[in-house]
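Worked example 3. Consider a protein that binds sodium ion.
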Amino acid sequence: IKRITTHILQEMKNNGEKISMLTAYDYSMAALIDGAGIDIILVGDSASNVMAGHETTLPITLDQMIYHATSVVRAVKRAFVVVDIPFGSYQGNSSEALRSAIRIMKESGAHAIKVEGGAEIKESVIRILSAGVPVMGHLGLTPQSIYKFGTYTVRAREEAEAQKLLDDAKLLEECGCFAIVLEKIPASLAKKVAETVSIPVIGIGAGGNVDGQVLVVHDMLGITQEFKPRFLRQYADLQTIITEAVQHYIQDVKAKDFPNENESY
Ligand code: KIV
Ligand code: NA
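Given these inputs, the predicted complex is written out as structure tokens:
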């Protein structure tokens, strides 16, 4: 199997082939989606919500992200693996940012890291890139800043914020980032960004005129059920499948149907 690289991702943009990306946080799920042929696996700090049950992504630690990333990397044979560098481990101190990024790369074996923000974290981005670590940007709705925004509504609807986002995207490209995620912004703005920068732009709630799409795997498989934003397309209803399977098992145990003779030694 030919491994996906940043070079291949750039070629996909150049050739107009859309890039597919999903999150994963553990070995079993990563093995499934890598086997299915996904291009990029993101070990997202959404693990804080999906895996740990926190309300935001802020509480997850660098050690916990490395644990998730290590499990994912063990499963992956083809996909490019990107890891979110968590809140508090890169902002405002480029030496700490570099140290955090190096820990992720060294301890997990992942292929790149993702950071949230533009001009504010420029020094950290440059420092991490200088060590040869590929960096993916993330602009628009950046969940680590949720207490600044106050809500999870669409970002950059106003001209000033849209202009800053476009400038930040150009800045991230100039710094040397290999791709940018755009979250929950108007489709017209996302299209403009994807046309302006030459690196791949991956959208989530950013419309179809970008170079690829990303979703949280538990959301698109219907495992998480409370979270149903307009941008989410649900491809399966695993909550129903899992609930029914578990209920069936309980029934069989109670009815002394399981295990039967063939299932016993
Ligand atoms: O953590 C995450 O799942 C993400 C994606 C939504 C882009 O950052
Ligand atoms: Na994230």
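Take a moment to read the result before moving on. The two ends are 40 Å apart (CA to CA). The chain has eleven helices and eight strands.
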